[in-house]
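tool_call predict_complex ligand=adenosine-5'-triphosphate
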Amino acid sequence: MNAFGRASRFVANLIIETASVFRPLLEPARYKGAYGGRGSGKSHFFAEMMIEDHMLTKGMRSICIREVQKSLKESAKRLLEDKLEKFGLGEANGFKVFREVIQTPGDGLISFQGMQDHTADSVKSLEGYDRAWVEEAQSFSARSLELLRPTIRKEGSQLWFTWNPNRPDDPVDKMLRGPLCPADAIVVQANWNTNPWFPSVLEAERQDSQAKDADRYGHIWEGEYARVFEGAYFASHLEAAEREGRIGDVAADPLLSLRAYWDIGGTSSKSDATAIWVVQFVGDAIRVLDYYEAVGQPFDAHVNWVRSNGYDKAEMILPHDGKTHDKVYKVTPQSFLRDAGLNVRTMPNQGAGAAMRRVEAVRRIMPSVRFNRDTTAGGRDALAWYHEKRDAVRNIGLGPDHDWSSHGADAFGAVCVDFIDRPDQAAWGKPIRRKFKGVA
Ligand SMILES: Nc1ncnc2c1ncn2[C@@H]1O[C@H](COP(=O)(O)OP(=O)(O)OP(=O)(O)O)[C@@H](O)[C@H]1O
Ligand SMILES: [Mg+2]
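tool_result ok
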């Protein structure tokens, strides 16, 4: 009997215990991804699936890849070897471990490489591959992704990604968690609490981190995006909101008016995002009901979002550039929204120092803000990330850094500036005049 025969017989007998969180990934798909915090079982699951696929299909070729791989020690090779041993798979079943590669049934192969060692030419050697598994994919560069995606092109081939999220604008996050996610993708989130084998050593470390390193705990252990702490304008304010129970179920008050604050981006895929916060002013507090963000969409798409979420009665509040003409449509956002039958107001130009005025307004008002958890997560990510750009040499701040988070942060700044300036609060912040009376 040949090696494959034995392997396939073994398949029938082999029971692979699997965490249920990964179950969707067992279905066929061109793109498969799992993201989450430390110790969630991502590497173990994909290593087992790799071996399973090689048992089931003769002559399969796979690559385990990372952005940089200085030595095989950094690769998944050792983990795959451990799995082979655990499953009792060896030469008799067609698996043989070599120094650099693992041979698999029917002259198949698993190899281990760093993407930075590849050039546009050398990457062509991967064209016949069936599986590419990118480990630590949060560090995978846009260049690597652009090289790899078209190269893995064999019929039935699959690209796998495992990662601990770092920033929403990391290429893997943009590809698999953003609006451009391919249709043929299955992506799951896993965490320590979905890992049935979460080891007690890691549990001790996790608890320690939760108690002593609260700032980084969410990122390391719960799969949240990293936050900038030095120079982050609102990170601590958002943490306070969480601690004080101000992030939760927040519903609209049907008796109060709705306000939608916009930051206007462009209509090309390379342009800035358009962000919208939907809020209500309730006495001395703000209820944040919803957040929307889109890149490179036509204006109609934003209006559709407004309508389909029942915000068409809301007042649309635009930044002062809402009066400038859009290059593509030759129409101002203000008139576009008015023509769509919406009620529009444009905020006055705040002039120099506007960005810092918004930052101050947010910091001042934040203790009175409540967020609806499910619908505002993307906006809160932006607020938590929004930070100061620094000149490291001169060690001075250069004002807010302009990146993916600026749009959400600017629009939220407008909410708070407008809240402070609202007409029924006209006395706020005005100097108090005194009349002095002398005693003769
Ligand atoms: N299928 C499994 N069988 C046995 N043990 C497992 C399995 N999955 C996970 N574990 C246990 O959980 C631990 C964490 O799993 P794993 O290393 O796969 O997590 P990870 O999500 O890749 O974490 P990291 O982000 O640290 O790379 C492993 O060291 C192992 O002890
Ligand atoms: Mg891992």
